[in-house]
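Notes for week 9. Today we move from apo structures to complexes. The key idea is that a small molecule is not decoration. When we ask for a structure prediction with flavin mononucleotide present, the ligand SMILES becomes part of the input, just like the chain. The input block below holds both the sequence and the ligand string. Read it once before you look at the output, and try to guess where the molecule might sit.
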Amino acid sequence: MASIFSPIRLGDLTLNNRVVMAPMTRCRAGVNDEPTADMAEYYRQRAGAGLIVSEGVQPSIHGKGYFRTPGIHTPLQMAAWRAVTAGVRAAGGSIVMQLMHCGRVGAAGNKDPWAETVAPSAISSRQALYTAAGMAPCAEPRALATAEIAGVIDEMAAAARNARAAGFDGVELHATSGYLPMQFLATGTNQRTDRYGGSPQNRARFVIEVLEAMAAAIGSGRVGFRISPGNGYNDMEDEEPVTTYTALLRAVEPLGLAYLHLINTPIPELEPLSFVRQHWTGPVIGNGGLTLDSAQKLLSDGRLEAVSFGRFFISNPDLVARFRNGAPLVEPDRGTFYSGDARGFTDYPQWSADVPVAVGA
Ligand SMILES: Cc1cc2nc3c(=O)[nH]c(=O)nc-3n(C[C@H](O)[C@H](O)[C@H](O)COP(=O)(O)O)c2cc1C
């Protein structure tokens, strides 16, 4: 029986246990979109995870959408990330970088003045985003020309190389939650008539080519990807999730990637875990509202190879030690999820057997 505390290999990634820290945007990067010393401390505190997936990181100035998110496209950013990965490694952990190109989900006020907002089709997101000047609408996106798409794919591959050079064990492609890769996959945001739109195979092509390029850049065993078929987050609409994600998984399966990271959001058309198991034989990390008990059951039943926790890792930096010791969990403070300072970021307490911490403390 697979214990949540037993080690596992996912491709070329070695995990000391099966508890993964889910990617979480915390909007605390520096003025040059570089990770700060506080961010290095935040990740170091959470190195007890079998694997940390970093917050979403933009591969280029155009890929940025939100307030104070970090990038991996300048030497300064790479140097600052080295401090993050060195701290995690010294504490015995592993870390991959989540690459997040926001596509149409971006407010002009959050981007460099010369950055563009691009998407598969010129269809605006109705989301309002937080900026330094208050809430602002998303910028109207420009539809990428067919000939430009190879350049965007190159940016993603270059970001994967930069992440490796900055000490990350690998990368995860963010293909959920309504960002650029999912904008290509979904019928509501992709109305293209070229080879990147129309049929399920064509809508899946961008994500397939990005994953192929990342695998060629750093090795397939160091590349994972995150999906959530049919998830409506960020006002996404998809009339064909079953055929599209079937085409995607069939094409990606032979690449031998490290893992598939699945956010479990059931929709009428499919039950996510059963669905991916039909089309994907590689390792699956499951996510979404898990507890120690529900996670252990999914591992014991052989339905997942590893499990990821988001919010519990915000407020329990030593989540694995707490699980091992049956210690109480601290509830996270939503008010400090995004932006701000060290409060709600690096000041959650470490559990100690001598000083029990009450739930909600
Ligand atoms: C503050 C916050 C930021 C998040 N940012 C990201 C992100 O950058 N990339 C991503 O794929 N998911 C992101 N998520 C989703 C989480 O990775 C995870 O899927 C979600 O919290 C559900 O897991 P949980 O029930 O264990 O919290 C974020 C969630 C939270 C709470």
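The chain is about 30% helix and 15% strand.
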